[in-house]
Amino acid sequence: MRAQFDAAFYRRFYVDRRTRVSSRAAVARLARFVAAYLGYLEIPVRSILDAGCGVGFWRAAARDLWPRARYRGLEISDYLCRRYGWTCASIVDYKPGRQFDLIVCQSVLQYLSDHDAARAIETLSTLARGAVYLEVPTTEDWRDICDRRRTDATVRLRSTQWYRRRLARHFVAAGGGLFVARPAAVLYALERAG
Hints:
The protein has helices at 7-15, 24-40, 57-65, 78-84, 114-127, 139-144, 160-168, and strands at residues 47-51, 70-75, 87-88, 100-106, 128-135, 171-175, 178-181. It has a single domain, classed as Vaccinia Virus protein VP39 (Rossmann fold, 3-Layer(aba) Sandwich). The chain is built from 7 helices and 7 strands; from the N terminus they run ααβαβαββαβααββ. It starts with 6 loop residues before the first helix and ends in a 13-residue tail after the last strand. Strands 3-2-1-4-5-7-6 form a 7-stranded mixed sheet, sandwiched between helices. Helix 2 (24-40) crosses helix 3 (57-65). Strand 1 (47-51), helix 3 and strand 2 form a beta-alpha-beta unit.
């Protein structure tokens, strides 16, 4: 799988304006939302793990929003680790010996087998002190909303329920892709997603 994430992959999905799935500006908007919601929930962000950090869009946003927070980029792409100096490891079995206030796991789990995706969720649960921002396309997303010209088709799709069942064991779904570690914050019933 590491070979799949080479320079050509990142050029196509993160650099080329015609085919990219995200941009620095889009991630900055998303990060502002995450920061505002975590601020509302009074979850401090002093440490950030960006699991599958790619070209570093979240690092740039984190510097603006949480300038004192320690940021760690985790990536399995040998190409990106050499280029940016990220920690070369997988969220499936990453064990840094500490927890993080915010974990970003954007567009990662769909590249893993069912077994490894389940293990990654377990790893997230042990590493998350505050919240996880999780973005992963589901079978429903692929069927109903994904732009197939810009979405990588070489992924493993699972149902929304597959993810919700596993995440609910450890997190409260706060909406907007945020999952709050128990008991980091109290959310009223209607604040919870799903």
